Amino acid sequence: MIRVALVDDQALFRAGIRMLIDSQPDLEVVAEAADGQEALRAVRQSRPDVVLMDIRMPVMDGLAATAELLADTDPPRIVMLTTFDLDEAAARAIRQGASGFLLKDADPEFLLAAIRTVHAGSAVIAASATRELFERFTDAAPRPVPPAYGDLTEREREIFALAARGLSNAEIAAREFLSEATVKTHISRILTKLGLRDRVQLVVFAFEHGLA
């Protein structure tokens, strides 16, 4: 069972999302909050797997709450909710360590799939939209490539390049004639060597260092 927390200042929106999530046999809403401060208490108490976090809220916004939660030991995966397609705040949250973003008017099936995708860690939510977000809000001058990148094997660099384009494990496996289990192993090693938390952080790393 995937445990989900909802953080949004609109009670009607939360109620709709809760009904949608609770209708699924593998998903369960375990906490709700109307602002960032409430979210800190609710998330730390309920220990969800995935948090859907609105960016703009009173008292404490989603960016501040996300930064605090991600500083905890073993934090949940956090998906930012936004009404804007290319939202600079969403880009900032992802740089902080959020696992992706969703539009608040996303198709219900897409939202459910996104929760499962983030929990599984096998792909990036809305890969093309995420790439577009970072093309828009990444500084023109890339940072120097850190020495850790040089520790990747040639094969790992090939897998890195495909993952940086947003390809899922299944897509990489089909393209490289590998099993999904092998791709998953490669991705895990890449993330460990580069000190990255998940695949969306890999995409950020690629853009910030001119490797995308």
TrEMBL record:
Residues recorded as bearing 4-aspartylphosphate in the entry: D54
A family per Pfam: GerE
Name of the protein described by the UniProt record: Response regulator transcription factor
ATP-binding is among the record's keywords: no
Organism: Microbacterium yannicii
Domain Response regulatory: 3-119
Residue stretches making up the HTH luxR-type domain: 145-210
Keywords, alphabetical: DNA-binding, Phosphoprotein, Transcription, Transcription regulation
